[in-house]
Amino acid sequence: MAKAVLGIIGGSGVYDLPGLEDIREMRIDSPWGEPSDVLRVGRIGRTEVAFLPRHGRGHRLSPSDINYRANIDVMKRAGVTDLISVSACGSFKDEYYPGFFVLVDQYVDRTHRRESSFFGRGCVAHVPMAHPVGPLLRQRIADAAVAEKIPFSLNGTLVCIEGPQFSTYAESITYKNLGYDVIGMTAMPEAKLAREAEITYATVAMVTDYDCWHEEHDDVDVASVVAVAHQNARKVAGLIARVARDFPAEHEPCPVGSDRALDGAIMTAPSARDPELLKKLDAVAGRVLKAPAT
Ligand SMILES: CSC[C@H]1O[C@H](OP(=O)(O)O)[C@H](O)[C@@H]1O
Ligand SMILES: Nc1ncnc2[nH]cnc12
């Protein structure tokens, strides 16, 4: 089995990773374009950790402008096997209050202007997404949250909107009535691309607000998100440090197959594949595209 390397993608309010030691800044070239920032690679305990702030340092990139493909590709090139995505989110449940963490296990994708696959013309692939989150990775986060005394839910459905505007009242009430738990703007296509790259993925959704459905709370705005996001950032640093310190040296085989998602997923016949696209897929699909040893 592969050596475990833990990737962390930081969201709003999480632009660095306290506790990361022996840091090297790695500017990794990607055939998919510019990632959000340099990768900061170091270690926490004995675990190698690669950190990337999704919006770039200084929060330069809006959710629609993030190059999700480049971000996942550089994580793959850095050897990341398990990826924790950290996000600020709005809540649709009274009991998921600002400061509460939701360990998402399902996503609903309402984005519409993002590149959401590494595959396409010249190399078509369909990976399973029924279970988008690695259960062992999620359980490790849950164990760490218990130890850190962070209130959390072990599951939840996150609806990802295009943004950058927050939702209308009608949208917010609709999502709430559909039973969704939290809302954000960045988990998709990140989770889909991680799956295509065979990286085990989990989201820590940190509640910052009640969106705009709650009669007793103000409608979400940036100031309210930022105020809570700073407090959440301190808590999530402790959480991640604990996950990393307790992480196994070798990647644990994923029970839902996230680390083997490309087995049988590519439809395009070898003779019909586009060599230019295959070159770009060298990292994310290298395991299955490499010519078999003769
Ligand atoms: C600043 S509120 C909206 C912004 O916050 C969340 O970012 P992230 O998921 O990267 O933590 C949300 O998705 C929006 O991008
Ligand atoms: N209410 C909300 N809607 C979308 N993204 C968010 N990120 C934080 N709060 C949010």
UniProtKB/TrEMBL annotation:
Keywords in alphabetical order: Glycosyltransferase, Purine salvage, Transferase
Catalytic activity field: S-methyl-5'-thioadenosine + phosphate = 5-(methylsulfanyl)-alpha-D-ribose 1-phosphate + adenine
One GO cellular component term: cytosol
SUPFAM superfamilies assigned: Purine and uridine phosphorylases
GO biological process terms on file: L-methionine salvage from methylthioadenosine; purine ribonucleoside salvage
GO molecular function: S-methyl-5-thioadenosine phosphorylase activity
Binding site for substrate: M185, D209, Y210, D211
Top-tier EC class: transferase
Superkingdom assignment: Bacteria
Pathway info: Amino-acid biosynthesis; L-methionine biosynthesis via salvage pathway; S-methyl-5-thio-alpha-D-ribose 1-phosphate from S-methyl-5'-thioadenosine (phosphorylase route): step 1/1
Domain annotation Nucleoside phosphorylase: ranges: 6-244
Quaternary structure note: Homohexamer. Dimer of a homotrimer.
Role played: Catalyzes the reversible phosphorylation of S-methyl-5'-thioadenosine (MTA) to adenine and 5-methylthioribose-1-phosphate. Involved in the breakdown of MTA, a major by-product of polyamine biosynthesis. Responsible for the first step in the methionine salvage pathway after MTA has been generated from S-adenosylmethionine. Has broad substrate specificity with 6-aminopurine nucleosides as preferred substrates.
Similarity comment: family membership: Belongs to the PNP/MTAP phosphorylase family. MTAP subfamily.
Protein name: S-methyl-5'-thioadenosine phosphorylase
Organism: Microvirga lotononidis
Gene behind the chain: mtnP
